Amino acid sequence: MKAIILAAGQGTRVRPLTYEVPKPMVPILGKPVMEYLVEELARHGVSEIMVNISHLPEQIERYFGDGRRWGVNIGYSFEGHIQDGKIIATPIGSAGGIKRIQDFSGFFDDTFVVVCGDALIDLDITTAVRKHWQKGAAASICVHKVPRSRVSNYGVVVCEDDGRITSFQEKPSVQDARSNLVNTGIYIFEPEVLELVPSGRQYDIGSELFPEIVNRGLPFFAIHEPFNWVDIGRLSDYWEANQQLMSGKLRDIKMPGKQVQPGVWTGLNCSVDWGEVHIEGSVYIGSSSRIEAGAEIIGPTWIGHGCHVKSGAVINRSILFEYTRLGSAGYVEDSVVFGRYCVDKDGNAAHQGDMELDWVGDARVLESGEKVATIKTGSE
Q1: Which of 57, 139, 261, 282 qualifies as a cystine partner to 246, CB 3.0-4.6 A?
Q2: pLDDT tens, 147-167?
Q3: DSSP labels for 168-226?
Q4: What is the H or E stretch that residue 320 is in?
């Protein structure tokens, strides 16, 4: 079977993470979110995967290559051009990107799966495809039921009792929502659907292709299978995704490294004064990281490789990317620390130029109430 991973977006809602990393490469438990998707597709017999790329494309191609590490074949469709030696991203929409591949080679010659490159799933893809065939569908959407209080964050799918889709609502109010089944960005298409997509211009799946399928009266169904779906559309979602995974909420995704005590995992070559450090799991400490006596770490917390947490520092339910140094007065709570940024779980970023963040030599000082977090990138 064939699939396409949609990976051309700029990830504007996950900035500043995506200033330097394309959204599919944002790490979850130490590896890119897209890698989980490739593994899931391979597990269900998908052997040929196209990836449309645009924003920082070289990072995705360099990491995944031809796919042989995962037992699949991976190809790429670049949406952009090179100007004055620089890559200029010019994405052409989710449906436009698929159509571009089809026009180029006719790649999609049978039932194929479409997944967005910014979510973690444990969907039984084999069962979903079987239900798609049983319905005689031209197109299917895998939907997920959310609490009605959250429908305004998603595209809502309205369908009949047999699953036939009749309409869509884009982020409706709680009062106006006609359903609490939402679009997960996981689709199953027959090649005929691509005949509805115009060539050579931007065209979106959700706002343009799906209404056209409904208007044409093609067999279009919602597949409602129980599965875990962790979307990282926003920074708050990214923080929450790490919290859920470190708490074991998604099947088949395990903590890496070696479990050295209940709820605590480490990579290789860590220096931790276990008798003098207060740790409450789940916590991961990356390879060659140093945790000094007197530090406090409350999970779920991820500490990347090459980090240094000094005596007196406190980390609470947070994510520290690699080569972060947290000083003795440091206090990080419900936050993500990466590169030149510290972002709280609601997506509020402190960065160079903000009043709260000042450069002090090669270190950064982030004031948080009466406590101060000193953060440094690179080796000490």
Answers
A1: 282
A2: 888 888 888 899 998 999 999
A3: EEES--TTT-S-SEEEEEEEEE-GGGGGGSPSSS---IIIIIHHHHHHHT--EEEE---
A4: strand 319-320
Which region, left, alpha or beta, applies to residue 155 given φ > 0 means left and ψ of -120 to 50 means alpha? beta
CA 267 to chain centre: 23
Q: Where are the alpha helices (DSSP H) in the chain?
A: 33-43, 57-64, 94-105, 125-135, 210-216, 235-246
Write out the two tokens for 241: 């995704």
Half-sphere exposure of 334 (CA within 13 A, CB side): 9
| Six-digit token string for 137 | 């569908």
Q: Which residues are CB-contacts of 106 (< 8 A; sequence separation ≥ 6)?
A: none
Does residue 322 come out as left (phi exceeding 0), alpha (psi in the -120 to 50 range) or beta? beta
Please give the domain boundaries of the chain with CATH numbers for all domains: 2-235 (3.90.550.10), 256-377 (2.160.10)
Please provide the DSSP assignment of 131-149 as one string.
HHHHHT-SEEEEEEE--GG
Integer Cα distance of 291 and 354 in angstroms: 29
> What DSSP line would sit under 54-88, residue for residue?
-SSHHHHHHHHTTSGGGTSEEEEEE-EEEETTEEE
Cα dihedral value 9, 13, 14, 16, nearest 10: 100
Q: Count the Cβ atoms, other than its own, within 10 Å of residue 240.
A: 15
Q: What is the C-alpha radius of gyration for the chain, rounded to an integer number of angstroms?
A: 22
For residue 376, what are the β-bridge partners?
A: 325
Question: What is the tens place of the pLDDT at every residue in 31-68?
Answer: 898 999 999 999 999 999 999 998 888 999 999 999 99
